[in-house]
Amino acid sequence: MQLLETKPAIKIQRRLPLLLAAALALASIVLSSRVWMTLFIGLSGLILVAYIWTWQLARGVRGSRRLRFGWVSVGDRLSEEFVLTNRSFLPALWVEIVDDSNVPGYRAAVVRSVGASASVRWRRSAICTRRGQYRLGPWALRTADPFGLFEATIPYSETDQVVIHPPIYSRAPVPLPAGHSSGQARARSTSHQATINAAGVRAYQPADPQRWIHWPTTARRDELYVRQFDLDAAGDIWLLLDMQEAVQLGQDEADKAADQVAGPDVGTEEFAVLLAATLSARALQQNRAVGLAAYGREPQLVVPQHGQGQQWRLLQSLAVVNADGENDLSRVLTDLGQLARRGSAVIIITPSNRLDWFPALLQLAQRSIRSHVVLLDRSSFGGDGNSVAMRDTLRDLGFVANVVRQGELGEPIEEFERRGYWEFKVTGTGKAVAVHSPFER
């Protein structure tokens, strides 16, 4: 975290010694006694020492924090390293870390001591329990003199953004749809992304990745040539999440506020996000172009693309999506029909038990967009309605439809209990070795 430090502030913690010193000064003048003068000088000296001590700490105490990973998954460990340095010639008996981060379940606040011209280092960590985009910071250091008369605050206004994305599960209960193009296996136009279909070669351009270079042609013509790709004959895949608040089931707001790792009993909102993350990872592994449409209060729209970069874009959007939208599924399908190109496939994930969106589904079919409907079984999520009957109706209309029940995703890939983390430790002989440590609850 790049620190934006503002000017340290010193304030009075206890006013009684100052009032007492003023009273002693007045008494020494009025009563003309050495006793009052001695007490006044002694107390004034104590106050002066306390202020100088605090002033030195305000000038010399500094802190820094470093985030190990800015992208983590639910169930992973969020870890920060803190360094507290004291450059003054006086020790800091206590330094409090005041943190205003909003990561659920993560508490960086701690009290440390640091000697004169010394530094201390420690790590704070926590298991990520809820997906979303969060903030680390702003934060501050607070310290004081040994007598507690003055307090110094060193604020740091800089913040770091942390994205906690949903985990990817080992089993998707529905297959990926096979899109279709309007021609044969080869598409009629070329793509700016790498696909499994190579159409030929062309001259190298500065923006082309080096992995596209076709070395036999380059060697033969004595200048750089790259492979040119056809559009994927399998078609794009759109993941459409029904984020209308009125149709959701499962966890209410109180449950969502609890800091618990997503388990098998999540509501329809969280289950749809987990299923979308798993399907997108599988499709991208098969070199399919994947996009996302989720119309919550803040719509998340990602156009279909290939590659690992697209995986991070999808996970970032899935991390922040919420089922708080007002648009019904019929409106969402109509909007998607204007975006998706012919030959695409759309996976519709919805817990809805209504029939008013069927006409919009038929309009997608008329535009040569194949729809695969994934119905979240309402009874398994604690709701009413017959999802199996809706599936049969959709199949009678010629659509591919499946019913998915709560808890059918299996286990997250590389579950955090098995993964742990690696860190370097120095042995007694001075050798640095890598040590694998399990995650702590």
Describe the model:
This protein is an alpha+beta fold and 441 residues long. The protein folds into three domains: 9-165, Immunoglobulins (Immunoglobulin-like, Sandwich), CATH 2.60.40; 190-230, no CATH class; 237-404, von Willebrand factor, type A domain (Rossmann fold). Helix content is 27%, strand content 29%. The chain has ten helices and 22 strands. It has helices at 16-31, 34-60, 215-221, 253-257, 268-285, 308-320, 329-339, 358-366, 387-396, 416-419; strands at residues 9-12, 61-67, 71-73, 77-86, 92-99, 111-114, 118-127, 132-136, 139-144, 150-156, 160-165, 190-191, 198-203, 225-230, 237-241, 290-294, 300-305, 345-350, 370-376, 400-404, 421-426, 432-437. The chain has a six-stranded mixed β-sheet with strand order 17-16-15-18-19-20, with helices on both faces. A five-stranded antiparallel β-sheet has the order 1-10-9-5-6. Strand 16 (290-294) and strand 17 (300-305) form a beta hairpin. Helix 1 packs antiparallel against helix 2, helix 5 (268-285) packs antiparallel against helix 6 (308-320) and helix 7 runs parallel beside helix 8 (358-366). The chain is elongated, with a radius of gyration of 31 Å. The two termini are 26 Å apart. The model is unreliable at 181-197, 257-262 and 415-422 (pLDDT under 50).
In the predicted model, the low-confidence regions spanning at least 5 consecutive residues are 181-197, 257-262, 415-422
Helix content: 25-40%
Question: What's the assembly state of these chains?
Answer: single chain
Distance between the termini: 26 Å
How many alpha or pi helices? 10
**How big is the Rg?**
31 Å
Average of pLDDT: 84
Largest sheet, in brief, is: 6 strands, mixed
What is the CATH topology descriptor of the largest domain? Answer: Rossmann fold
CATH superfamily of the largest domain: von Willebrand factor, type A domain
Total of domains: 3
Strand order of the largest sheet: 17-16-15-18-19-20
Q: What is the top-level CATH class of the largest domain?
A: Alpha Beta
Number of strands: 22
Gross morphology: elongated
Strand composition percent: 25-35%
Named CATH architecture of the largest domain: 3-Layer(aba) Sandwich
